[in-house]
Amino acid sequence: MIVLKGAEVSARIKEQVREALKGCEGQPPCLAVVRVGERPDDVSYERGALKKMEAFGLRARSCAFPEDISDEDFRKAFRAINEDPDVAGILLLRPLPKQICEKDIAEMIDPAKDLDGISSVNMARVFMGDAGGFAPCTAEAVVEVLKANGIPISGKRVTIVGRSLVVGKPLAMLMIKENATVTVCHTKTADLAGTCRQAEILVAAAGRARMLNGDYVGQDAVVLDVGINVDKDGKLCGDVDFESIRDKASMATPVPGGIGAVTTAVLARHLVRAAGFEIG
Ligand code: NAP
Predict the structure, then answer these.
(1) If you measure from the C-alpha of residue 22 to the centroid of ligand 1, how many angstroms do you get, rounded to a whole number?
(2) Its pTM surpasses 0.90
(3) 27-113 has which CATH code?
(4) What's the CATH fold of domain 137-260?
(5) Which pLDDT tens digit goes with each residue over 7-17?
(6) Is residue 228 lining ligand 1, measured as CB closer than 6 Å?
């Protein structure tokens, strides 16, 4: 089984960013990472995003707010970030605390700065197959890993486990755009293992530690693991039981070091596009 490392795909995107910014005068584009509270997942994702922007020669700033900030105060602060001409793109870490109406904030965000495609404008563009918008970075990262490794998508049977608005649904649309035949599974799918085994390309995005073992993987399938989970021993792991698929899958992404590394690279590419540069 070939291990598809995210670092190699990320390096390719870094090169695209460098090329796009060649000759750019003045400050490089700036990302604002908006975080409410101190959830460890958010803090760690923010750290990764800030580090990646710096490594790619881009700017980033953290805009962190206390967990108990009122809806009104957060809206005011968010509006200021949204309207700040120095901010080319925004990454809003979610879920937001329950006193803040997340749906309203997703609608407030300037679609031109909405790097993770959370607004209905960008979501509609993904569903319409319009590449002019911003798709959610993780969904785009999955397609990017396939393309960067020369793995054909057109005409292939793709099965996605998970139907969230962040990963499963937009990814299904991106795969359809690439001419795949797509099946989307969820908790009510009758024969999950059997359906997954039919897939030539299997994407795990369920958020269940090591749930998909060798029984779920067809011979020579390509397996992409989006899951980021912590197992009962406190170890980071994906949705796929990596060791048990070794004799079945032809290729697979590891966790950590797979899709996650590409997600922040795609975020950087979106930032460059949002700032008006032509890129890859
Ligand atoms: P989510 O909103 O919780 O959605 C999970 C989806 O998986 C739901 O559609 C759910 O089905 C389905 N599901 C859960 N358990 C299942 C089971 N036992 N059998 C079949 N389907 C099942 O999660 P998410 O936000 O999409 O994230 C999914 C995973 O990706 C998480 O581990 C998350 O941490 C990770 N993630 C990674 C990145 C990255 O950059 N790599 C980015 C975002 C998320 P129902 O709809 O029926 O409930």
Answers:
(1) 38
(2) yes
(3) 3.40.50.10860
(4) Rossmann fold (3.40.50)
(5) 999 999 999 99
(6) yes
